[in-house]
Specification:
2 domains; 123 residues
């Protein structure tokens, strides 16, 4: 908001008020590593540090559904029967023994494989 004082010959001064520009809101849906909804935020000031989010439209924000999943950065309304969770070898994730995935090992262990949970939507 800007306020200016302008001299006028008929008055002592004139107050000119210029409103701040209107910035449209950015609606965000924050989610965790498993794609589960954490929160809906209607402005940038309510952000979660380091949280994963996608920008959504006003309709999705207004619905505020917590029964959806985020898969590959997109909203999925698939039922639990149509979603498959699978551990896949990866460069990041949990370090496990190379021959037995049920044994979690330290990063310094030599024979290790890292596994990451991936989510697939069927059909």
């Amino acid at each position: 908001m800007t306020v200016k004082y302008v001299k006028d010959e008929n008055a002592d001064f004139i107050l000119v008020w210029e409103p701040a520009p209107i910035v449209p809101p950015e609606f965000r849906l924050y989610y965790d590593d498993k794609g589960k909804v954490v929160s809906y935020v209607g402005d940038k000031s309510g952000h979660i540090d380091g949280g994963k989010y996608i920008v959504i439209d006003t309709q999705t924000f207004a619905e505020g559904r917590h029964d959806i999943k985020i898969i590959d950065g997109k909203i999925s309304t698939a039922t639990a029967d149509a979603v498959v969770y699978k551990l896949m070898p990866s460069d990041e994730g949990i370090s496990c023994h190379k021959e037995d995935i049920s044994i979690v090992v330290d990063e310094s262990f030599i024979d290790q494989t890292k596994w990451k949970l991936t989510i697939y939507e069927l059909g």
